[in-house]
Each structure stands twice: as structure tokens, then as C-alpha cells.
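Sample intake sheet
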Amino acid sequence: MSKVIPKDKEYFFDDDVIISQTDLKGVITYGNRVFFKVSGYEKDELIGQAHNILRHPDMPKEVFKKMWETIQTGQVWNGLIKNLRKDGLYYWVETEILPIRDENDEVIGYIAARKSASRKDIQENEEIYQKMLETQK
């Protein structure tokens, strides 16, 4: 079982925003410095990889199904996500995903902005996600 990032190691993104971009299939095309630092991966290890490389096994599939349904219709999606770092630790983030559009208003990719989730939101979502995982089996 993975462990949460110790509080003394979270300093580097408490006030920073994690940014990443993907193509239409969820393949990472860009990440900011905070994205790589928090995930524990180097830039060349993530660019070109499917974003779900960061998916923690405790996350219900239904959350990502709803996320894809929302963003593929050109809408903005918001939610709490538990991500898995390269070293096996994990971190919770409040996430907002928006479509990236070209000059013809066609969706050509997605951009996600994330910030550290509050303890209250984590506790509430852990309970909900646990129930979802139980019905998923």
C-alpha cells in the first residue's frame, strides 16, 4: 500500500498550481515544473505517456468515466483525484480540466490545473470513493 506524501514534503506545491496538457487521448504533451516535482517523475519520463500513469488504484473507474464524458463534450470537469507518485507515495489534488480549442473552435486537447486538496475534502471523497469501489467489484 502506498503512503501519502509527508506534510514536510508538500511545501513545494502548497501554493503552486500543477499544470499539465494532453492530447485528445490523454497522452501528456506538457507539464509545468510543479507537475514533474510533485509526481516524482522527470519530464522525459512523462511526456508522451498516458496521463493515467499517475492514477492511484484507489480511484474508482466511474470517476474517470464521468470525467471523460464531460470533457469530450467540451465541458469543464472539476473533481478530487488521488494520484500515485513514481516512488509509490500519493497525493490528493483538486482538479479542473478544460478543453483546448483551435481557431475553428474544435477541441484539440485538454489542460488540467490542480492544487493541493483540503483534509476535509479528502476525507469526504475517500468515503464516497470507497463505496464506489465496493460496487465496482
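Comment: The chain has one domain: 7-136. Strands lie at 18-22, 28-31, 77-84, 90-101, 107-116.
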